[in-house]
Amino acid sequence: MVNPGEVPTASVSDLPSQDLVLLDVREPDEWAAGHAPEAVHIPLGELPARAAELAELPDDKPLYVVCRSGGRSARAAMWLNAAGIADAINVAGGMKSWHTEGRPLVGDREGVPPEVL
């Protein structure tokens, strides 16, 4: 088991502004409320069963993993790295920091502005 302190981590301000490969591991209701426009959504609990989908993502760039505040994404990044599936980096502060930093947010709920649950 990898020590959580050993999980590669980046702050939102350190993320590339273009060609960002972002995996959102939050639950469907959190995703629908607000998410990064280009993110791929695979809830943490579904990650092992859907790991093959990650093979379709570019493998020449790191995979940034995000949740609401950084806890679930740290576990996901740890698992992805340990399993050799991706060069995964946890996004510190999660979507809360994403939103605070003014990064774009889109939602799936009609007539409701996007928000981070």
UniProtKB/TrEMBL annotation:
Single GO MF annotation: transferase activity
Protein keywords: Transferase
Highest taxon in the source lineage: Bacteria
Endpoints of the signal sequence: none
InterPro entries: GlpE_sulfurtransferase, Rhodanese-like_dom, Rhodanese-like_dom_sf
Rhodanese domain mapped to chain residues: 16-107
One Pfam family recorded for the sequence: Rhodanese
Protein name: Sulfurtransferase
Source organism of this protein record: Prauserella flavalba
Classification of source organism: Bacteria, Bacillati, Actinomycetota, Actinomycetes, Pseudonocardiales
